[in-house]
Write a structure and sequence with these properties.
The protein has 300 residues and is an alpha/beta fold. It has 8 helices and 15 strands. It is globular and about 50 Å long.
């Protein structure tokens, strides 16, 4: 896919309706209430399509599909990741996002949905914190990043301390990827030459991280990749052992590496447009959008 062919989604504005959905694990209702209060504080109207408890995949998929297809819903926000997104893929049709280009937001297990969206339409989706909002992990900085991306004109992200050393020349390409464990179960059907691969992980050992990296390589996720971007690797064992595993894989796989992007399972998670053209500059530690992934002029 040519990055120039990818088109933005509609930018949110005060008064818009956003729907919180739970296609994965059931969320904590108190965290959902926290997320709802935050969104309403931004002038958004909220709908919560969940009444508590475990539900079969058919019900969760129908809830998600209804949010995607409803003209009155302007963004679809996943409350919690966990598990369960993979089994919904045969039941979901993301082609409606070409006719109603709305943001779909989430992370971790939602990697399955991000990948399916990238394969189905030429629109971005958004790697965001869970909207069952955790005040322990995400404070004002995370909230500002989410708000700026969905209601404003975000420019990109600035890397901090990374799990490995950033290096290599600046490159531009379409950003894709997500949670390493999820990607290891996905064939790279949405891959394209020049893509930039983002990876983050939670609670794996350095050894299992190495095994997962080998699996995503075998599934084609490195084919044609121009750079690798590392986000947050949280509770992944000894830092030096993890660095050695990641460095070894990078040396064999790619020239340009940017580490320390604040997205994943850590604190103060920032929002990032997936499936969107970005420029990566290791020398300055920046991941910049080539253009805004949202457009205030879009409607349906």
């Amino acid at each position: 896919m040519n990055p120039a062919d990818i088109r933005p989604v509609r930018r949110l504005r005060p008064g818009d309706t956003v729907r919180l959905v739970s296609p994965c694990s059931p969320p904590d209702p108190h965290r959902v209430e926290t997320g709802v209060r935050m969104l309403r504080g931004w002038g958004l109207r909220t709908e919560v399509a969940w009444d508590g408890g475990e539900r079969p995949p058919e019900i969760r998929a129908a809830e998600m599909q209804q949010a995607l297809e409803s003209p009155g819903v302007h963004a679809v926000l996943v409350t919690r990741a966990g598990k369960g997104a993979e089994e919904l893929l045969p039941l979901l049709d993301f082609s409606v996002l070409e006719r109603q280009p709305k943001p779909v937001c989430g992370f971790s297990d939602v990697t399955f949905l991000h990948h399916a969206i990238a394969a189905a339409v030429r629109r971005p989706s958004f790697h965001t914190p869970e909207l069952a909002w955790s005040v322990r992990l995400n404070g004002e900085h995370s909230a500002a990043s989410l708000r700026e991306t969905l209601l404003g004109e975000a420019s990109g992200l600035q890397a901090g301390q990374g799990v490995v050393r950033s290096r290599g020349p600046a490159v531009t390409g379409r950003l894709r990827g997500g949670n390493l464990s999820a990607l290891a179960r996905i064939d790279a059907t949405a891959a394209a030459k020049g893509d930039i691969l983002f990876l983050e992980e939670l609670r794996e050992t350095p050894q299992t991280v190495g095994e997962l990296l080998n699996r995503i390589t075998a599934r084609g996720h490195l084919a044609g990749v121009s750079a690798v971007v590392f986000g947050q690797f949280v509770e992944c064992g000894d830092a030096e052992q993890l660095r050695a595993v990641l460095d070894d894989w990078c040396e064999r796989s790619v020239q340009t590496v940017l580490a320390g992007i604040p997205a994943g399972h850590g604190v103060e998670q920032e929002t990032m447009a997936m499936g969107w053209p970005v420029s990566v500059e290791p020398a300055t530690g920046t991941l910049s959008y080539v253009s805004s992934p949202t457009d205030a002029g879009l409607t349906w």
